[in-house]
Write a structure and sequence with these properties.
Blueprint: E1 2-4, H1 16-37, H2 40-46, H3 54-73, E2 76-78, E3 81-89, E4 91-97, H4 111-125, E5 130-136, E6 140-147, H5 150-158, H6 172-181, E7 191-197, H7 206-215, E8 218-224, E9 231-232, E10 234-235, E11 238-239, E12 249-250, H8 254-263, E13 265-270, H9 278-285, E14 291-299, E15 302-303, H10 305-321
Parallel strand pairs: 4-5, 4-7, 7-8, 8-13
Antiparallel strand pairs: 1-2, 2-15, 3-14, 5-6, 9-12, 10-11
Helix pairs in contact: 1-3, 3-10, 4-5, 6-7, 7-8
Length: 333
C-alpha cells in the first residue's frame, strides 16, 4: 500500500510542461534578436561551439530531477500495518429534527440550516470523542453511526434536509430510544443524547424515553429551536397551510423540552442566533468520566521520500555537469 502524506505537492509535476513552453519561448526571442544583428546562418557560423541541443537536454534532465523532487515532497510511504489505537473521550448522539416546521425562518437562514451549522462547528472542535447523528420527523433514522471520522460526519451532515425522513411528525421519544441503541458496546458511562427540535406536535412519550435512558446511565439534553410566538413555514414558494386553508404557525414548545431534559438528567437550552447552545452542553458532557476506546487503524508507514530526493539530486548534478558548448565527443550536439 502506497500513501502520500502530503499529496498536494504532486501538483508540482504539472509545472513541467510549462518549463518546456517557457524555454521554447526564450529560444524564439533569442532567434529574433540574432536576426536583428544580421543573417542567422552567418551568426551561427561565427559561433561554432554553441550547441543547439544541449539546452534541451539540460531541460529534460532538470525536469526529471524536478519530477522526483515533487514526489519526494509528497512524502510517499509504504508498509502500513494494522495497529490498535487507544483514545479517551465521550460518546455523543445528536438527534436532529428534520420535520417541515424546521424550515421556519426565525433563525437565519432557517431553523434546520442554523442547527446544521452549529453541529458542523461542534465537529470541528472534537478530538478523541465519538459522535453519531440521527435525523427524525415522524420516525427516526440513523444518518451516521457512532464514529470518530469527523470528515464523514460533516459530509453526512451536508446531505440532511426535510426530505431525509419521508414521514412527517415529531417522534422525539422514538428518536431518543434509537439513539440509546446506537451507542457502541465499548461505552458504559460517558454517553449523552442531544435532541435538537422545536418540540412541537410530539407523537409519543419523550419524557418516558428520556427517563429510561437516564436509568441506563445516558444523559439526555435538549436544545429548543424556534420562538414561542411562532413563525409560518415556507413551502413551495408560499406558506404551509392546513386542510382548512389557514396558515400553519410553528411554535417552540419549551415545556416539553424542559421536562425531557429533567427526566434525562440533562439540561434544556434555548438556541440563540449567536450561541446555539451546543458548546455549553458539550462542555458539560466532557466533565463526565471519559472512557477509553480502542480501534484498529493503519499506522507506522515507512517513509520513502529520501530515495526520491536522492534520485532528484543525481539528475540535478548531471544537469549541472552538462555545459552550454558542444562536446568534442559529440555526446550532446
Amino acid at each position: 500500500m502506497i500513501n502520500f502524506a502530503q499529496a498536494q505537492y504532486l501538483f508540482l509535476i504539472l509545472l513541467i510542461p510549462f518549463f518546456f513552453a517557457a524555454y521554447a519561448l526564450l529560444l524564439h526571442m533569442k532567434r529574433k534578436k540574432i536576426r536583428k544583428l544580421g543573417d542567422a546562418g552567418l551568426v551561427s557560423r561565427l559561433m561554432p561551439s554553441v550547441s543547439r541541443s544541449k539546452g534541451w537536454w539540460k531541460l529534460v534532465i532538470f525536469s526529471i530531477a524536478f519530477f522526483f523532487f515533487s514526489i519526494g515532497m509528497s512524502r510517499p510511504q509504504i508498509g502500513a500495518k494494522l495497529k490498535e489505537h487507544r483514545t479517551e473521550g465521550v460518546e455523543i448522539m445528536i438527534a436532529l429534527d428534520v420535520s417541515n416546521s424546521m424550515l421556519a425562518e426565525d433563525y437565519s437562514p432557517n431553523r434546520l440550516e442554523r442547527a446544521k451549522l452549529a453541529i458542523s462547528r461542534l465537529v470541528d472542535k472534537l478530538r478523541d470523542d465519538r459522535i453519531g447523528l440521527i435525523v427524525f420527523a415522524g420516525s427516526p433514522f440513523v444518518q451516521l453511526p457512532i464514529t470518530t471520522d469527523y470528515v464523514s460526519a460533516k459530509m453526512f451532515l451536508n446531505t440532511i434536509s426535510t426530505e431525509s425522513v419521508p414521514i412527517q411528525g415529531t417522534a422525539m421519544g422514538d428518536a431518543i430510544n434509537t439513539a440509546v441503541r446506537s451507542f457502541s458496546a465499548q461505552s458504559e458511562k460517558s454517553r449523552a443524547v442531544i435532541v435538537i427540535t422545536d418540540g412541537e406536535n410530539h407523537e409519543d412519550d419523550p419524557v418516558a424515553a428520556a427517563k429510561q435512558a437516564y436509568d441506563m446511565g445516558i444523559r439526555v439534553y435538549t436544545i429548543g429551536v424556534g420562538s414561542p410566538e411562532g413563525e409560518p413555514i415556507p413551502m413551495d414558494g408560499g406558506l404551509l397551510k392546513d386542510k382548512d386553508g389557514n396558515i400553519v404557525v410553528t411554535r417552540l414548545d419549551e415545556a416539553v423540552l424542559e421536562n425531557v431534559a429533567k427526566a434525562g438528567g440533562g439540561v434544556y437550552v434555548k438556541a440563540g442566533n449567536s450561541e446555539f447552545g451546543l458548546n455549553p452542553i458539550v462542555d458539560s458532557i466532557k466533565k463526565m468520566d471519559e472512557e477509553k476506546f480502542s480501534s484498529v487503524v493503519f499506522e507506522e508507514f515507512d517513509e520513502q521520500y529520501m530515495y526520491f530526493f536522492a534520485i532528484a539530486l543525481v539528475f540535478l548534478v548531471m544537469e549541472m555537469l552538462i555545459g552550454e558548448r558542444k562536446s568534442k565527443r559529440h555526446l550532446f550536439n
